Amino acid sequence: MTSASPPTQGSIPVRPVTVVRATGPGGAQPPQKLPTAGMIRTLGLVSAICGVIIVAAYQSTYDAVAANKRIATERAVFKVIPAASSIAEYLALPSGEVALKVGAGETAASAGIRFFAAYDAHGQLAGVAAEGAAKGYADTVRIMFGYSPACQCVVGIGVVAMRETPGIGDKIITDREFLANFNALDVKLNAELSALANEVKAVKHGAKTQAWQIDAIAGATITSRAVGKAINDAAQALLPRLVPRLDALQQRSKS
Amino acid sequence: MNATVDIWDEFTEGIWRQNPVFVMVLGLCPMLAVTVSAVNALTMGLATLFVLVCSSGLVSMMRKLVPKEVRIATYIVIIATFVTVVDYIIQAVSLALYEALGAFIQLIVVNCIILGRAEAHASKNPPIPAMINAVGMSIGFVIGLFALGSVREILGAGTLFGVSLFGSNFQPWVIMVLPPGGFFVLGGWLLFFSWWARRKQRTQAGRTGEGTQHA
Question: Phi then psi for B168, rounded to 5 degrees?
């Protein structure tokens, strides 16, 4: 666990280290050797104790943390697709396949785009939720948006994490006028199904004319734009892979 | 008898005489950053309490083993361990709180109150007084954080612990939950405490009949 990295070890100069005490009881004695063995023993002991404490804490909180994270994600999905009663996590792979994500491992999936298929009480596809992220005013704004295959539009957004200015940027959670943009935000694909027909974009407050535009909040334009860019980037990447495969997702898989 | 007085003295030192926030003015960076709401302030205070008490105990137990050349490294390892533990605990309790406090949980490692206590007190005293002193210091820190957090939340959001205080017509004083508000409120509290200390000094001086020319 505490194996030192070899490259730095070679560069330590090996010479007898002495320490001169200016004051204290040993002042009159000849310079003492540094108690190297004592230092190594102490640091080793402290590290061992600390290692045990950390492992114990990690082990005992692991389940609760994992459950918390799952609940937070599920809550975000249920918020953007209110009709949902159960969700399944999928990956949209570069090959064009969609695969049910199994387990919590991050293996093999790095190239896949994560999304959630949400099913209603009868096991029918109610919508798809995915995460998007873009740079906002203070930090990255991460949002979850719900996609409805029926109207090919975004039907709701929720914020996963952000650090925008309280009272200004965080209006994207509360401002009714702004949230009305996402009742049916157009994210249709073009004829070749390779990209969105129209780029989703936030426009100045009051300048919205098209179904794929987002009317920004006055005073919080940068945050509004971040939401637009997050949706646009995520939809551009996910939807061309997802839409041709939607049939496979219509029914909740039994596995 | 004397021992009880000492223990009590150890305990109250951090709460009042050497309050880490208002007297020593230490640990300001987490203090100003996380006190946007009373809940954040309390969580931060409790996390610091846990780290401070545990690390003071362990540092004090090991005080005779640690060569002075590596004492700072040892203290940092010990402190970092308990910070990691508290980090996991907060994640397990509430992710929303964890997100709200952000990097400041991990930054407890470099909170100067904790390292300062380890160096100035725990390394020179047996575990029990060291931990009692740490509890007192942390309570002082919690009081300081809460004094800032509650005022900022009331003024900046019109709520306390998320409960609305003034009804829907209250126009929040947003600057109070922004970084400048932290400085305003901290300045206000420091002003208040120094005014108080000076007044006390004056009345004492007046009673003994000296120094009245400053009155």
Answer: -80, -15
pLDDT in the model for residue A255: 45
What DSSP designation does A189 have? B
Nearest residue to A236 (alpha-carbon basis) of A202, A205, A201: A201
Q: Sketch the domain layout of chain B as residue ranges.
A: 2-164+172-214
Listed residue (A79, A237, A238, A243) closest to A157, CA to CA: A79
Indicate the pLDDT class of residue A24, thresholds 50, 70 and 90. Answer: very low
| Alpha carbon distance B59, B46 (integer Å) | 20
Q: Give every CB contact of residue A27 below 8 A, 6+ residues apart in sequence.
A: A21
pTM of the model: 0.70
C-beta of residue B105 within 8 angstroms of C-beta of residue B83: yes
State phi, psi for A157 to the nearest 5 degrees: -130, 155
Could B157 and A168 be called an inter-chain contact, meaning their C-beta atoms sit closer than 8 Å?
no
Contact criterion met (CB below 8 Å) for B90 and B105: yes
Q: How many whole angstroms separate alpha carbon B96 and alpha carbon B88?
A: 13
Say which residue the tokens 């334009």 belong to: A221
Closest CA to A142 of A164, A121, A124: A164
Q: Residue B93: list chain A partners with CB under 8 A.
A: 64
3-class SS of residue A186: strand
Cα–Cα nearest to B114, from B11, B179, B30, B16: B30
Both tokens assigned to B16: 């009042």
pLDDT computed for residue B25 by the predictor: 83
What value of ipTM does the predicted structure carry? 0.75
Strand partners, B62: none
CA distances from B70 to A51, A180, B131 (A): 18, 60, 22
Distance CA B114, CA A249 (A): 54
**Contact across the interface for B77 and A69, Cβ inside 8 Å:** no
| Residue A64 contacts B, CB cutoff 8 Å | yes
